[in-house]
Amino acid sequence: MRLCHFMTLDFKTHNMNEIKIFCPATIANLSCGFDVLGLCLDNVGDEMVIRKSDKKGIRITKLVGADLPLETEKNVAGVAALAMLEALNSDAGFDIEIYKNIKAGSGIGSSAASSAGAVFGINELLGRPFEIKDLVPFAMQGEKLACGNAHADNVAPALLGGFTLVRSYSPLDIIKIESPSELYATVVHPQIELKTSDARSVLKQTVSLKSAIMQWGNVGGLIAGLYTKDYDLIGRSLHDEIVEPIRSVLIPGFDLIKRTALGNGALGSGISGSGPSIFALSKGEATAKQIAKAMSAVYDEMKLPYEIHVSKVNPDGVRIL
Amino acid sequence: MRLCHFMTLDFKTHNMNEIKIFCPATIANLSCGFDVLGLCLDNVGDEMVIRKSDKKGIRITKLVGADLPLETEKNVAGVAALAMLEALNSDAGFDIEIYKNIKAGSGIGSSAASSAGAVFGINELLGRPFEIKDLVPFAMQGEKLACGNAHADNVAPALLGGFTLVRSYSPLDIIKIESPSELYATVVHPQIELKTSDARSVLKQTVSLKSAIMQWGNVGGLIAGLYTKDYDLIGRSLHDEIVEPIRSVLIPGFDLIKRTALGNGALGSGISGSGPSIFALSKGEATAKQIAKAMSAVYDEMKLPYEIHVSKVNPDGVRIL
Lengths: 321, 321
Known about the structure:
The structure is a homodimer. The first copy, chain A, has helices at 2-13, 76-88, 110-125, 136-147, 155-160, 196-201, 209-228, 231-237, 244-247, 254-263, 285-301, and strands at residues 18-28, 37-53, 57-64, 93-99, 163-169, 172-177, 183-190, 206-208, 268-271, 278-283, 306-312, 319-320. Chain A is an alpha+beta fold.
């Protein structure tokens, strides 16, 4: 699939001076997989336009939809792009326009979408000096700027699509796992901002061996469920012993939203990334939409503003528009 | 495969009064999967003969090759069998002969082989009231007697074959994973006894979040490697952040044996179960045999008596002879 896709693009991007891309939102952690698992959404994301420039380096020339820094070294897309150009020892220059739809601090990979988009787009315009997987470390530099921690669990699925497992950070080893075709995500974003750095600071630095064993049992189960397309096993494995009990108290209505999702047929539900968004996974779009309706009713009742999305898993990651 | 096998056995075991079975050794933990992962060996194991008796209950009538209790309530096979009969509310009676080849305290599932064999054999003689997977909780009662902890990571692979993942203990949820066909194990057993209960007592009850994350990344990687038959990924994932650094000091020559295995082509190497046996996994029998030779040279040099085994992964678990 990806190869065919690329063969077409090779023709399209050859001598291209400008590229317009879709930069998908992502759900990291996925209950049991804190810091290692993530999935890519299909219809939620930003857009970026990247143009070759005669002037060396990276400039953020336009930023629509968010109040974020334009200065290259303070912008996640800028930092990720600079890391890539530095690795190439390149004199190339690029102007980047960012059209944000994903709100910063929503917990669905807003900074990752920009970081991943920047390095993906520049890689295309340069004639693809890197494999997509090799772009992950550059995009991680954007994450480091955003939250102080160069985590890969959002940028990896944003770049590669599907589900991704960060088996190891040192050395970086990322495994892509295809999503079962009927798997859908519902994501609700209550309109409070929760910074990743704050959500990390509440975590304990030690965990009980017993909880850790339960967690890695569930990670194993989730991976097995994805390979065997066993939706029930996926659901049984979407359980978080360690982070959710601590972080969920920061999210208004978390327990009720989760119970509502499960009561409406979700396979599982938990905190998306570091929150405050809450995700549910379902078999089939109809169930995912039903869950969206039920979640909406909860936050309507609480008079809490929210955004809500229903999306299948995006198999390919960032794409050219 | 299993179904065809059973159809033949159905005929053979109908009205059968006696059964002779092979009860395989197993490797639990497999580096990253402490308390959740295990695999079944093919040519290392005990034999048992089980006979229907007119006398209600379970008797261990013969025990060859080990100095273990004959008293039913003190014998792991007896305890597992009694748990099963109790669940069935059965008045049936059985005499069990056990021919041990797996040494107690070797770390390759000696008690699990007896517990699994007993419940498998009696299930056959009773006309299979239980699915094989449903025998695991009874066999776990034998493990509880042996080491104070009803763990499933040896009895599950002994009963089901291949690799098994204990996703959850409560409720018990066991996933069987087929082994890639070229995967071989080398297991060396230095002749010191290390009780599971002692090997457990050295463990710390809390672990750092960072180590736990590395561990569940590797569990995910190992499961992904098994499903995709990616031998390199299996090897990269066979890493233990948490237990091996603590337990390995109890095993003479551990570091050298592990380095030797890796230097001779092993995908990975670690402590088998709670030790003192050390396992290595390889792609192909030739490599596994070469590793056995090199490990032997290490213990020969140290003048430490040992047993050594090379085995492919047993796809089916306990089998009728």
